[in-house]
Specification:
This protein is of the alpha/beta class and about 140 residues long. It is about 40% helix and about 15% strand. It is built from five helices and five strands, in the order βαβαβαβαβα.
């Protein structure tokens, strides 16, 4: 009788993981994209909330990093729209902002965001933040 081999689960490499960035400031999008790509993540980005919603219809990210302050649709509004989409509502959502005040963090927490990261940060900060988020959300 042939012995049945145990099933080995393949651990996905970071390259199979997509981080979705939303920020209206190109300098932050570029810096974050570069830092994440150096960590071997696939990066999809958008510079506004409406474009992000369009792209999220065809993208299944492992994590969404979104700025709070953006014109037309701010990060809080985008968060609520994402959470109302059944396909997207379980994706970890992290706010990032240069607003380091209690009220913005409180609103993010009340809405149900998974984390809040304060800008500015350098590429080493991004690596640490992403390492922590990957561990925390098992990305």
């Amino acid at each position: 009788m042939k012995k049945k081999r145990p099933t080995v689960k393949k651990t996905p490499s970071p390259l199979e993981k997509t981080i979705f960035l939303v920020d209206d400031e190109p300098i932050w999008l570029d810096a974050l994209s570069e830092a994440l790509e150096q960590q071997h993540f696939k990066v999809v980005s958008s510079d506004n909330g409406e474009d992000a919603l369009r792209k999220l219809k065809t993208t299944s990210p492992s994590l969404i990093l979104s700025d709070v302050r953006m014109p037309a649709m701010n990060g809080f509004d985008l968060f609520e729209r994402v959470r109302n989409e059944p396909k997207l509502k379980g994706i970890p959502y992290v706010f990032m902002s240069s607003i380091d005040d209690y009220d913005a963090k409180r609103v993010a927490k009340e809405l149900g965001a998974d984390d809040y990261v304060t800008k500015p940060y350098d590429s080493e900060d991004v690596k640490k933040i992403m390492t922590d988020l990957v561990k925390r959300f098992k990305i």
